[in-house]
Amino acid sequence: MRAAVLKDYGQEVTVENVELDSPKKGEVLVKIKAAGICHSDLHVVSADLPLPVPMVLGHEGAGVIEEVGEGVTRVRKGDHVVLNWVPECGECYYCNIGRKDMCDTAQYTAQTGALPDGTTRFHSKDGQIFQFSMTGTFSEYTVVPEAGVIPIRKDVPFPQAALVGCGVLTGFGAVVNTAKVKPGSSVVVIGAGGVGLNVIQSAQLAGAGKIIAVDVAANKFDIARQFGATHTVDASEDDVIDQVLEFTDGSGADYAFEVIGRPNTIAQAYNCLGKGGMAIVVGIAPPNEDVAINAFSLPAQSRTITGSWYGQSNPIVDIPKILDLYMAKKIKLDELITKRYTSLDGINEAFNDMKEGKVARSVVEL
Length: 366
Prior knowledge:
The chain is α/β, with parallel strands linked by helices. It has 2 domains: 2-151 and 333-365, Medium-chain alcohol dehydrogenases, catalytic domain (Quinone Oxidoreductase, Chain A, domain 1, Alpha-Beta Complex), CATH 3.90.180; 171-308, NAD(P)-binding Rossmann-like Domain (Rossmann fold, 3-Layer(aba) Sandwich). Helices cover 28% and strands 26% of the residues. It is built from 11 helices and 19 strands. The strands form 3 sheets. Strands 4, 6, 7, 10, 11, 18 and 19 form a 7-stranded mixed β-sheet that branches. The chain has a 6-stranded mixed β-sheet with strand order 2-1-5-9-8-3, with no helix packed on it. Strands 14-13-12-15-16-17 form a 6-stranded parallel β-sheet, sandwiched between helices. α6 (221-226) links the parallel β13 (210-215) and β14 (231-234).
C-alpha cells in the first residue's frame, strides 16, 4: 500500500510503498477515502512540532472500517468513520472529569509516534515508520485505536466528513465549548484560514452580533464574509486594535480568537478585548516561544486568556452533531473545500498551496 512519508525535517514528503500490520486487540483497520491538509502537518515538516521520523503524516481523515481487532465493539466492518487524533484512554483524571481533549495517555502517546502499546504498524524495508497522532491519514490504509474512529452517518461525503476531524471541530469547539459565545456579542478572529473560517461560522451560529475577521491576505475576506464575518481588517495595512475599537464603539471585543499560532498575534488578540473579555488561543505556536501581555490588565479589566485544544471537544458527541448541522444546511463544509487532489501524489503541491494562502481547505481523495 502507498503512504506519504516524511523522512526528515524540512524535506518534501515522499509517496512510497509501505507495509502495514493487521490490527491488534482494541484496534481497527481503516480504508482512507479522504484526507484533509492541515497546518499541523506542516508544523511537523518544519520541526516546529518535533516528532520522530520517518513518519506517515496526516491526521484529518475519513474512511471505511475494513477490519476490527479483538475486543472492538464501537464499530464494525463497513462503518463510515471520521478519525479522532485524540483517542481518549477513558481512565485518566482528565477523561474522568469529561476533558477527553486533555487525555494524558493520548497526549503522551502522540509524542512517541507510536500506538498506545508503544509499537508501530507501518514499516518499510528500512524499519519502523511512525504515524502522526495515532492516525497517519496520508495513506491508503491505516491502523488506529478503537477510540481513534468516530462512526458517522453514511450519507455524508467523505471529503466533507474528513474536514470535521480537525479543522471544523477545532473551530466549532473553540466557540461552543471553550468560549461559549453569547448571542449579540462581538467576536474577533485573527486568521481567516481553514480553522478561522470555522470559528467565524460557528460564532454566527451562536448568534454573535459582530464578527471581525483579521488577516494579512485581503483575498481571504470574501470567503470570510460568506462564512459570517460582518467586518474585516487587513492587518498588513491597518492597526488591528484601533480598527476593533472602532467597530465596537470603543469598548473592545467580548471574544478574540487567535488562529495562527504566533506570539505577536496572541498578544494582539488579548489586546483587542474589552473589560471582561476572553482571548482564546487556537493556533499552535512553537513550544519554545513565549507571549508577553500586560499583567495589570488581567485583574484590572478582568480579562481572560485561555487555550482551546481540539475545540475542547468530546469527538464521539461533537463530530456527529456537526455533521447533522451540515446535512441541515446550518454549517458550511462544501464551501471550505477550495481544491481537491486525486491522489497522494498531490501532497507536496497541497502543502505549497496552503503555505501560499491559495486555499481555505484542501483534501486528498483516495
